[in-house]
Amino acid sequence: MTTQDAPGPVQPGEPAPDFTLPAIHREGLISSADYRGRKPLLLALFRGLWCPFCRRAIVQLGTTREKLDAIGVETLAVVATTPENARLYFRFRPTKVPLAADPELVTHHAFRLPKPPVTPELIAELGTTHVNPTGELPEPLSLAHAGDALDRLHGFEATKTDQSDKERQLAQLKGQFLVDRAGIVRWANIECASEGLAGVGKFPSDDTLLAAARTVA
C-alpha cells in the first residue's frame, strides 16, 4: 500500500512543517508556533470522524495525554473534518486531548502522509484483509465491513460532512510525529508502514508513545 513517485513521510531529523488550524477544544486558532521553544509536541494526524479507528484512538490519546503532560510533552490531535462537524461530535463525546480541525488535510499533505490511489486492486484487498485493531469486534472482519460494524457498536451516525469526508479521504493514512522544542521531528509512526493494509486502524500503545517522548522531554 504505497504511493508511487511520491516522497515519503517527514522523517526524524527533518524540520516539522508549520501549520495554523482552527481549534476545536477552544475558540481561535492553534499553531505549531504555540509550541516552538516551549515544549515538545506529540502531533497525531487523523482522518475524519467517519473513521471508527480514529475515533477510538482519539479517546485513547486523551488518557495518554495526561501521562505525556506529566513528563513535559504537549499533545495535539488533528481531525480531518470541519470545525463545526468536529465540535458537534465532541460536544456529545468529550475528549481530554486538545484538538484542531483540518478539513482540507493541509497538515497531512505537509507531513507527506501517504494516500494511495483507490484502484480495483486496492478495493479487492479491502475485502480480503481482516482486522480488529481496537479489540472491540468478536472476531476480525474485512476492512470493507469492519468500519460499519464498529459504527453500529459505537452508535455512530454519520453526518453529511462525515459522508463527504469519507469519499474524499478513502485510503488516506494517519501518522504521529514527536517534535522537539526546536521544531525538529524526533520520532514518527506511519499507519501501514510495516504491515500494509493489515496495519489499518492500529495506534501506538501508551508505552510506545511514552518511550518516544522521554527521548525529548
What does this structure look like?
The chain has about 220 residues and is α/β, with parallel strands linked by helices. It has a single domain (about 20-115, about 160-215), classed as Glutaredoxin, CATH 3.40.30.10. The chain is built from 7 helices and 9 strands. It has a 5-stranded mixed sheet, with helices on one face. Helix 1 (about 50-70) packs across helix 7 (about 205-215). The protein is globular. The N and C termini lie far apart (about 35 Å). The mean pLDDT is about 95.
What count of helical segments does DSSP give?
7
Domain unit count: 1
CATH class: Alpha Beta
Helix and strand string, N-terminal first? EEEHEHEHHEEHHEEH
| Proportion of residues in helical segments | 25-40%
Q: Number of DSSP strands?
A: 9
Q: Low-confidence spans: pLDDT under 50, at least 5 residues? A: none
Main sheet makeup? 5 strands, mixed
Span of the ends, CA to CA: 33 Å
* Morphology: globular
Rg over CA atoms? 17 Å
CATH structural fold name: Glutaredoxin
The portion of residues forming beta strands comes to 15-25%
Considering the protein shown, what is the CATH homologous superfamily? Glutaredoxin
The SS-based structural class is: alpha/beta
Strand arrangement, major sheet: 5-4-3-8-9
**CATH architecture group name:** 3-Layer(aba) Sandwich
The overall pLDDT, averaged over residues, is 95
What is the topology?
Blueprint: E1 20-22, E2 29-31, E3 41-46, H1 52-70, E4 74-79, H2 83-92, E5 99-101, H3 106-110, H4 120-128, E6 130-131, E7 141-142, H5 143-154, H6 160-169, E8 175-179, E9 185-190, H7 206-214
Parallel strand pairs: 3-4, 4-5
Antiparallel strand pairs: 1-2, 3-8, 6-7, 8-9
Helix pairs in contact: 1-7
